[in-house]
Write a structure and sequence with these properties.
The termini are far apart. The chain has two domains: 55 residues, DNA polymerase, domain 1 (Orthogonal Bundle), CATH 1.10.150.530; 286 residues, Aldolase class I (TIM Barrel), CATH 3.20.20.70. Strands 1-2-3-4-7-8-9-10-11-12 form a ten-stranded mixed β-sheet. With 351 residues, the chain is of the alpha/beta class. It is 39% helix and 19% strand. Strand 8, helix 7 and strand 9 form a beta-alpha-beta unit. Bound molecules: S-adenosyl-L-homocysteine and iron/sulfur cluster (SF4). The site of S-adenosyl-L-homocysteine has 17 residues, from strand 8 and strand 10. S-adenosyl-L-homocysteine binds next to strand 8 and strand 10.
Amino acid sequence: MTLSEMENYFESIGEKKFRASQVFNWMYNNLVTEIDQMVNIPKSLKAKLEEQTTLNTLKLSDVQHSSSTGTTKYLFKTHDNHSIETVFIPDLKRNTLCVSTQIGCPLDCKFCATGLMGYTRNLSVGEIVDQYILTAAEVGKETITNIVYMGMGEPLINFDNTLQSVSIFTNELNKRISRNRVTVSTSGIPHKIIELADSPYRVKLALSLHSVFEDIRSKIMPINVKYSLAENIEAIRYYSRATKTRITFEYTMLSGINDRTEDVKALTKLCRSLPSKLNVIPFNSIAHMSPEGISRELKPTPKSRIDEFVAELRDNNITVMVRDTQGDDIAAACGQLAIRELKIPARNMRE
Ligand code: SAH
Ligand code: SF4
């Protein structure tokens, strides 16, 4: 619940409105996990709350820590026994929390473990915010400086819940996370990008690009058939103008598919045409899922080619960041821990 929803709730049960900010504070700022820990709440109200409400919607079920990078991956169980994951990525300048917005994802991108999992449902606002509350309780509440919506699922399909969680993070916490430290990553839903631009939550936007060519993009990202790259580019131009922010293009390097000389040329042209930067991501293999069709053929671009590709783009004055393979040793790529948890039947395993 947002603070105002909580106020309505307390009024509806005949309680004073100020109880809402007390409880809100306990939950979101003091990160308590038991109603009993809320020491300034009267016993009778605590009993009512115990009866009528649930404090946390997720349960921590596994933690994996990469000692080489400090990245920690949290696996949570939802009330209906599904698994979702949240990744904490500490860095010199910032400590980023990567949150999930759906159980699985309906968009079926061919390189993505979450896509291969299929789709179960949207996460509720509580389940999105709980990823923050429960990891902040683990790593220290002052520690998380940035939030990226780059975990499992497509945030712009779960639009309202994503926005409401952004609202809580950026407006309602004591130690607010400023909206230029929140990034929503999307595979590209143009009308939702426009709606986000026109909302009060003008967060940073990342578009999963992966190819500048419509036909290739459609092969690896089926959603491109419905919402073409051209429409998405128009939408992000609008977004960039309306929010005065730079768009990040995410670009997962797939050997022979998007790492050719013509890709460098087309990328250069696109990046020069609007305020943007390119985030090059080494492809994390999904072979453990024994994928079929085109997914089976996808191979990571060798590191030497990534280096050349990036150098060629930088020579063209394009701003390029190369994402570390953070947490490789703990399978911290999109959807991988939750997948392991699914216990893929042996017959689907590759020899
Ligand atoms: N659904 C949103 C956000 C979640 S995916 C989106 O697609 O943007 C976050 C990022 O991880 C996306 O850029 C996605 O393309 C990338 N990604 C997914 N699977 C990957 C893999 N196996 N290796 C590298 N990057 C991957
Ligand atoms: Fe969904 Fe993003 Fe994975 Fe595509 S890359 S299947 S949109 S989570």
